[in-house]
């Protein structure tokens, strides 16, 4: 009969807890507009990793999208998004570690839809159109 001591049981329980607490993120990339990125899943290897997703317009027809696990990319952006200029291109990077698969597609809620409309009206084409008549 197998006899387990307290230390062995504690180590087994700890390994189960550590294994189950690893963050899972969507991962992948795309370069063509409309093509999905982040359709596969990966368990992050480091406890300091966060899920991230990044997107940049390469030209009028193509958008670069990237998703995965990273400690370095998300070092200063825990659970938030930021815009950076990289090689002359505006890149939006969003990082999160508050739940598994948090870097998935945006869920369109009433609040997020209202924010998109507000952003469009205040800084988009309609704002420029209105200023040309004033």
From TrEMBL:
It comes from the Eukaryota. Keywords: Signal. Residues 1-22 form the signal peptide. This is Activin_recp domain-containing protein. It comes from Panagrellus redivivus (Microworm).
């Amino acid at each position: 009969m197998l006899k387990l001591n307290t230390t062995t049981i504690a180590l087994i329980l700890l390994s189960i807890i550590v294994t189950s607490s690893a963050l899972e993120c969507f991962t992948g990339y795309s370069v063509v507009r409309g093509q999905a990125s982040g359709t596969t899943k990966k368990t992050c290897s480091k406890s300091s990793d966060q899920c991230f997703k990044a997107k940049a317009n390469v030209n009028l027809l193509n958008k670069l999208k990237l998703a995965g696990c990273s400690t370095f990319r998300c070092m200063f952006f825990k659970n938030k998004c930021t815009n950076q200029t990289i090689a002359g291109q505006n890149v939006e990077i969003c990082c999160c570690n508050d739940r598994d698969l948090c870097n998935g597609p945006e869920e369109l809620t009433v609040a997020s839809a209202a924010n998109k409309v507000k952003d469009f009206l205040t800084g988009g084409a309609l704002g420029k159109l209105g200023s040309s008549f004033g």
